[in-house]
Write a structure and sequence with these properties.
The complex is a heterotrimer of chains A (184), B (874) and C (214). By secondary structure, chain A is α/β, with parallel strands linked by helices. Chain A has helices at 11-25, 38-46, 81-90, 101-106, 136-151, 156-172; strands spanning 30-31, 69-73, 96-100, 127-129. Chain A has a 4-stranded parallel sheet with strand order 1-2-3-4. The radius of gyration of chain A is 17 Å and the shape is globular. Chain A starts with 10 loop residues before the first helix and ends in a 12-residue tail after the last helix. Chain B is built from 26 helices and 37 strands. In chain B, helix 9 (410-423) runs parallel beside helix 22 and helix 9 (410-423) crosses helix 23. Chain B is 26% helix and 18% strand. Chain C is built from 8 helices and 5 strands; from the N terminus they run ααβαββαββαααα. Chain C starts with a helix and ends with a helix. Classes of the chains: A alpha/beta (184), B alpha/beta (874), C alpha+beta (214). Chains in contact: A-B, A-C, B-C. Chains B and C meet through loops of B and helix 3 and strand 2 of C. Chain B: Residues 101-140 form the 4Fe-4S His(Cys)3-ligated-type domain. Chain B: Residues 304-360 form the 4Fe-4S Mo/W bis-MGD-type domain. Chain B: It comes from Kineosporia mesophila.
Chain lengths: 184, 874, 214
């Protein structure tokens, strides 16, 4: 992304990581992406009673090019899926996705042909938030959890290492098709 | 169904009125069925179309009026049970729909039934599919007026390791007791006590006065044995099990590494209950009084998905309902198919399905690493590439033998047959991974292949007499046994069996024994007694798996059929055998019954398969494939679902697998072949693929894929393998093989010649007689300890005189050791009326792996000695 | 014309106040500055939810620590989102998790399907499944992590409880449990659990408990 990617591993990079994480987590700019009922709760979160402004993210950008957090709030229909993906693609790096509500996360009770069974089929999701819809506290709670993730986000060689570790773990994991009987 | 049963004479119709609608039904129709004709459902619990009327539950009460002698229609004073009353002319019936009296009577009965019925629906397995629950909700009282304490019993009695009885829930409909008496012939529970204490109970010594000193191992002296040779076995069907108990040893075992769960109760004969059909009582129980241990509390009917299925075990082709949940089969039930299994099946078909989900299931292709010598999981493309290269190399180096095994669907067997001819360019293919003979192949080519639907279950039921030649119906073809027993109980049917001794199955069929020394079945088939047995027109001869080891038997059977006019049917033991014959998985046979030796048939098939020509040389059969591979003549082996221990000589089979330079194994689970294989390609078990079995009748038994799975069928794997070799055999898709085979049509040309008679003299001290039990060590019964507990205990059987020669003392339990130069088997001895100089062993029961220990089969010479004391506990 | 009218209006409204007209709207803003702040300082100060708020589920225990769930799957049946998976199993003398013969061996709730509607707790015949007001655990970075298993859902072990498996209170039936006659665990149960933990005497102790229980 920038100069921080070129830094060698070690104390220097760690310090930059901490600093970059601290900066990034406090300046999330969400893209407006209300799709259904969850959007109402998302709007409430931005309103004075819950006031996302306390976390520096009261400005929901209308343009994805100015946003770095996509809150997918509501059920994603098959027709909407390409739009979601395009908005995601238009966002600048580093970017995060919060899947708000059960419909966005897994299809929820709409287990049918019209609804994408989890927005992670289209975009990589960093944090899932169940609820139908989740109350604003739950959204804030999830955003704070995301802040933790962002704070601890590795950079440069550390990031490559983390990616490799994640891939190795994924290869080792039991494929969901073989998890007989249980929910998956 | 009683109503639709065909009748030889013109049907007498009676006309009656039900709920104001006039209806004509055949004479003798029960009111409850007549109402069904009109679409009026009368509630019932005890009534079952295949069981005799009982009138036990009283739920089906209706108001009936009948014309008296003057013709005035007079109502009967009280409501009548419609499940026991037959329709008579002029009857006026009012059901709960039109009559407040019937409605009130049914409500009242329901209230009485519920008095002692516990409110434990949430923990009851039947909850959700329970007739009592449904009916109580539909037309029961909202509230109970019964405020007293309900009758309770200790929670479930374990009748067998598999069947549990919960007496609190029982509504005394007697479906289970009627089934076990009328259909299976294994009474194990019955009504006991009187009045409010009436209950279904076991034959425990606490309730009934039975002897409990289990006579095991059973040794009887010759004085107690009555001669039964050539005579109808004594004992009517009612007390048959007590009559049979003198020589029948059943019971649970926990030997030879097969774990069972728990102990069984004693049955009527005072022995641990071990019926092969007990699962049906669970299915027909209208409440949750009888439950199966394997399915107990595992799932709920409302979250199960049901698929149609066909049993993969024997050649009966019973229809099944496969209930599964989230990718896992939860249970299997007998489905209704009036042409085949009616509504019943055996316990093996019901419960032996866990074999495919064990830890040894293969999920990835394996290729043997040339350096380490270990099998390593690899990707499909790589495994196919290695397999294709190896097979091509082996083909050039001397040829590849194909052993598909006898458990394939028609499509898969056809894929093997086509793959062998088109890709491997050989006729060295034989599905008979069991005892076999050239005579058998000739018989199959001559009389079975390409004959289509022959003798059917219905024909079997209608036949005046049936001769079982080398077939133990109860052990080897359970649905055939049930159908035979049904017609025997109806009346005039006679069953004859060519066997060394009268098995319990034969006694339950009230059958006559044509006593035979194993290996001499040909003589028995040629005897006057056999001719007399099938003299009546319409008789049927069933040829069982044992005949293949009996020289001349097939020829004698054909001769008997020709001289008497009786029809022949071949009843193999495995589900895929008949299909494999049709598909051409035999060395001398191409698909559709086309003989390899016939140039016209070869040209026919070459055109159909779009190849230049087909190999003209008749191939090797399984024994010769094994010999050739062991001698290094055949360089490669392509092996399907074959257990080397089933082969005529397991040691030779293992040696062949060891010697062959390239072995490809297509298996569901890691098996004995896997250890020798160079490439292992995983294939789908029947629940994870669709297909068609041909049952012994020649009937197509199509079934869909039940579970979502990425496992490939044998046919699809062979298709990919052929593509890798560079040959297009076009068998992708689950039914493409079956469809292609059907499109080929049957061979219209000359049939293969009749089998030749080969006489092999029997030498040695004692002749071995053996057949497989329904429940044994078979690999398709793995992983089901509850089922294993109901298997019959393995014993050796000898005649009293032969035993006396060995020095068996009167009244003392003895173990005998059967041995030859290959090995020995020691089992408890049961004295049985049978020919002298014959010893019987179960083929593959725990403690008695006849093939792998003795490498001997039916009719082979063995030696017997009294086992030493140190072997008593073995 | 417009000018003329505006002059008239200002002269009618009169005087210098008209100068404030453009900013009169800010009055609301200024006034609000002195009202109580409505913003909830969520992570720092947690406002309690309504008492009947549908939060995370809980699998309750009997007062002696045995589980109330009997694995009947009625919750799974009632669930409109197919979010619950239950598999029952037999209680044995060696492993007793609930009074009676059946217990829930597997209990899973997929919170990424669950809509917290509460139909499951209405369906529960033993009040084993209830809902708490807890909502903060409901977040996560993986889908699998939001499938809560039985151990995640079980109620905490309170005073007087011993976590299952252990035998029922001697001399009681499952009816007594449902009628509230069992109020806490008894020493026999504690002894049984201790014996089970003690490796050496395990077999003997289990036998004696079995005998006593019957």
């Amino acid at each position: 992304m920038g100069i921080e990617e070129k830094l060698p591993s070690g104390f220097m990079l760690t310090s930059v990581e901490v600093l970059a994480g601290y900066m990034r987590k406090a300046s999330l700019w969400p893209a407006t992406f209300g799709l259904a009922c969850c959007a109402i709760e998302m709007m409430t979160s931005g309103a004075p009673r819950y006031d996302l402004g306390r976390f520096g993210m009261e400005v929901f950008r209308a343009s994805p090019r100015q946003a770095d957090l996509m809150i997918v709030a509501g059920r994603v229909s098959q027709k909407m899926a390409p739009v979601v993906r395009q908005v995601y693609d238009q966002m600048v790096n580093p970017k995060w996705v919060l899947s708000m509500g059960v419909c966005a996360s897994s299809g929820g009770m709409f287990n049918n042909y019209a609804i994408v069974q989890g927005v992670d089929h289209i975009v990589p999701v960093d944090i899932y938030l169940p609820g139908c819809p989740p109350r604003p506290e739950m959204l804030i709670n999830a955003i704070l959890e995301l802040h933790q993730q962002i704070q601890n986000m590795p950079l440069g060689v550390n990031r490559e290492e983390a990616a490799r570790a994640a891939e190795a773990a994924a290869l080792k994991a039991i494929p969901t098709s073989q998890m007989k009987g249980l929910l998956r | 169904m009683t109503v639709t049963e065909p009748s030889k004479t013109a049907v007498d119709l009676v006309t009656l009125t039900i709920d104001g609608i006039e209806v004509s039904v055949p004479k003798g129709t029960l009111l409850i069925r007549a109402a069904e004709e009109l679409g009026i459902a009368i509630p019932r619990f005890c009534d079952h179309p295949l069981l005799a009327p009982a009138g036990a539950c009283r739920q089906c009460l209706v108001e009936v009026a009948m014309p008296d002698r003057e013709g005035n229609v007079r109502p009967m004073p009280k409501p009548q049970a419609s499940c026991t009353m037959t329709a008579t002319p002029g009857m006026v019936v009012k059901t709960q729909l039109t009559s407040p009296v019937s409605e009130k009577a049914q409500r009242g009965v329901m209230e009485l039934l519920l008095i002692n019925h516990p409110l434990d629906c949430p923990v009851c397995d039947k909850g959700g599919e329970c007739p009592l629950q449904n009916q109580a909700l539909a037309n029961g009282q909202g509230e109970s007026r019964f405020t007293e304490v309900k009758r309770t019993f200790p929670k479930p009695i374990r009748i067998s390791t598999q069947v549990l009885l919960d007496r609190e829930r029982c509504i005394l409909c007697q479906r289970c007791t009627r089934f076990s008496k009328e259909i299976a012939g294994d009474p194990f529970i019955d009504l006991q006590m009187r009045g409010a204490h009436q209950q279904i109970g076991t034959f425990s010594p606490g309730v009934l006065d039975f002897h409990v000193d289990l006579p095991y191992p059973v040794v009887r002296t010759s004085e107690e044995l009555e001669p039964t040779v050539e005579s109808q076995t004594q004992g009517s069907t009612k007390d048959e099990s007590r009559g049979a108990s003198h020589d029948h040893v059943t019971g649970t075992y926990a030997a030879d590494g097969i774990a069972t769960r728990g102990e069984a109760m004693l049955d009527e004969s005072g022995q641990p209950f071990a019926s092969y059909f007990s699962g049906n009582t669970i299915q027909i129980c209208p409440v949750g009084a009888l439950t199966g241990a394997a399915y107990r509390f595992r799932a709920r009917p409302f979250d199960l998905v049901s698929s149609k299925g066909v049993c993969e075990h024997c050649a009966g082709g019973c229809a099944l309902r496969v209930d599964h949940r989230r990718g896992k089969v939860a249970r299997r039930l007998a489905a209704e198919d009036s042409a085949v299994n009616e509504e019943w099946n055996c316990d093996k078909g019901r419960w032996a399905f866990t074999w495919s989900t064990g830890a040894d299931r293969l999920t990835h292709p394996l290729v043997r690493d040339p350096e380490t010598g270990e099998l390593e999981p690899v990707s499909w493309p790589y495994a196919l590439e290695v397999a294709a290269k190896g097979l091509l190399k082996a083909r050039e180096a001397g040829g590849v033998g194909v052993l598909p095994g006898g458990r394939l669907t028609v499509g898969d067997a056809y894929a093997y047959a086509k793959f062998a001819r088109v890709v491997l360019r050989t006729n060295d293919i034989d599905f008979r991974s069991r005892a076999h003979s050239a005579e058998e192949e000739a018989f199959l080519s001559h009389a079975v292949a390409g004959t289509g639907l022959g003798v059917t279950y219905a024909a079997l039921e209608a036949a005046p007499s049936v001769l079982l030649a080398g077939l133990e119906a109860e052990e080897e073809a359970a649905s055939v046994f049930l159908r035979l027993r049904k017609s025997v109980l109806k009346g005039s049917k006679k069953v004859y069996s060519i066997a060394p001794w009268a098995s319990r199955g034969l006694i339950k069929l009230s059958g006559s024994l044509l006593q035979t020394v194993p290996g001499q079945e040909a003589t028995a088939l040629g005897s006057a007694a056999a001719a007399e047995a099938v003299a009546e027109p319409g008789s049927i001869i069933l040829l069982g798996p044992r005949l293949t080891e009996s020289p001349g038997a097939y020829q004698a059977a054909l001769a008997l059929a020709a001289s008497s006019g009786a029809r022949l049917a071949w009843v193999p033991r495995r589900a895929g055998e008949r299909g494999a014959v049709e598909a051409g998985a035999l060395p001398g046979l191409l698909p559709g019954g086309r003989p390899v030796s016939d140039p016209a048939a070869r040209v026919d098939m070459a055109a159909a398969w779009d190849v230049e020509s087909l190999p003209s040389q008749p191939g090797r059969d399984a024994t010769r494939i094994v010999d050739a591979a062991a001698a290094g003549v055949l360089a490669g082996l392509l092996v399907g679902g074959v257990d080397p221990d089933d082969m005529p000589d397991p040691a030779a089979a293992r040696a062949a697998l060891e010697t062959a330079s390239f072995v490809v194994s297509l298996e569901v689970r890691a098996s004995a072949v896997t250890a020798y294989a160079d490439v292992v390609l995983p294939v789908a078990p029947p629940a994870e693929k669709g297909g068609t079995y041909l049952n012994w009748e020649g009937r197509h038994r199509e079934f869909p894929q039940a579970l979502t799975s990425d496992a490939l069928s044998d046919g699809e794997v062979l298709d990919s393998l052929a593509s890798e070799v560079g040959v297009w055999i076009g068998l992708r898709g689950e039914l493409s093989g079956t469809a292609e085979l059907a499109s080929l049509g049957r061979w219209e040309g000359a049939k293969a010649d009749r089998p030749e008679h080969h006489t092999v003299p029997v030498a040695g001290t004692t002749v071995l007689s053996t057949w497989s039990m329904l429940l044994d060590r078979g690999r398709l019964q793995d992983g089901e300890p509850y089922l294993a507990g109901t298997a019959h205990r393995a014993v050796a059987r000898m005649s009293p005189a032969t035993a006396a020669q060995l020095g068996v003392q009167k009244g003392i339990s003895s173990n005998v050791t059967v041995f030859n130069d290959r090995g020995e088997i020691t089992l408890p001895l049961a004295l049985t009326p049978m020919p002298d100089g014959v010893v019987w062993l179960p083929s593959n029961s725990p403690g008695s792996p006849v093939r792998s220990k003795l490498a001997a089969g039916n009719g082979d010479a063995v030696s017997v000695r009294l086992a030493g004391d140190q072997l008593m506990g073995a | 014309m417009a000018d003329h009218n505006s002059n008239e209006t200002s002269s009618d409204g009169g005087g210098w106040l008209s100068a404030f007209a453009p900013i009169a709207g800010f009055g609301v803003t200024f006034a609000t500055m002195f009202t109580k702040v409505v913003t909830e300082q969520y992570p720092e100060q947690k406002v309690p939810t309504a008492p009947r708020f549908h939060g995370r589920h809980q699998l309750n225990r009997h007062p002696d620590g045995l589980e109330k769930c009997i694995g009947c799957e009625l919750c799974a049946w009632a669930c409109p989102a197919d979010a619950i998976f239950v598999e029952g199993a037999d209680n044995t003398e060696e492993d007793r998790f609930s009074p009676g013969e059946r217990y829930g061996r597997v209990y899973q709730i997929n919170y990424l399907r669950c809509i917290l509607c509460g139909l499951c707790i209405e369906a529960c015949p033993t009040r084993a499944l209830t809902m708490t007001n807890e909502y903060e655990q409901l977040k996560g970075s993986t889908r699998a992590g939001l499938i809560f298993e039985k151990q995640d859902l079980l109620a905490p072990v309170l005073g007087g409880m011993i976590p299952a498996p252990h035998p029922m209170v001697p001399g009681t039936t499952e009816q007594d449990y449902y009628q509230g006659k069992v109020t806490q665990s008894v020493s026999e149960q504690q002894e049984w659990v201790d014996a089970r933990h003690g490796e050496d005497e395990k077999a003997g102790k289990v036998e004696s408990v079995k005998g006593g229980d019957r």
